[in-house]
Amino acid sequence: MDHYTKEGFMLTHSIGFAINKARNVLVTEMDAALKELDITSQQMGILLSMKRGIATTPFELSKLLGIDTGLMTRMLDKLEAKQFLERSRSLEDRRVVNLALTKTGEEIAARIPEIAPVVLNNRLKTFSKAEFKEMQRLLLKFIAD
């Protein structure tokens, strides 16, 4: 089923426009809130994924977070320069780079849950529980492969 036609398509009424604008609003607000930790919202995703053991290599992080490998490398460079993480070559396969949070990285990652929910809850404050669940369900359906 087609939801758009070339005759009726209006950029500002498209789902893509709304999702992109919502992302931009959220990134701006999250980046401002995370400034005290000296990280961005994208770096937050890296640190939390590593802290929870969801991803431990640049490739896994790129795939999980939907970030191309070039940008991922630049973000990891910045986090490594801040001494939030360390890279090491795999002993089994020298092509694989393993990542580990430093003590400072662990401390920063541990503080993120104090900040991120406040930003998200503020943006969602006018949503009922049912609206929140429905939005979550629909967005997960939209991004499913």
UniProtKB/TrEMBL annotation:
Residues 12-144 form the HTH marR-type domain. The keyword Transmembrane helix does not apply. SMART domains: HTH_MARR. GO terms for molecular function: DNA binding; DNA-binding transcription factor activity. InterPro entries: HTH_MarR-typ, WH-like_DNA-bd_sf, WH_DNA-bd_sf. Pfam families: MarR (PF01047). The keyword RNA-binding does not apply. Keywords: DNA-binding, Transcription, Transcription regulation. This is Multiple antibiotic resistance protein MarR. The gene is marR.
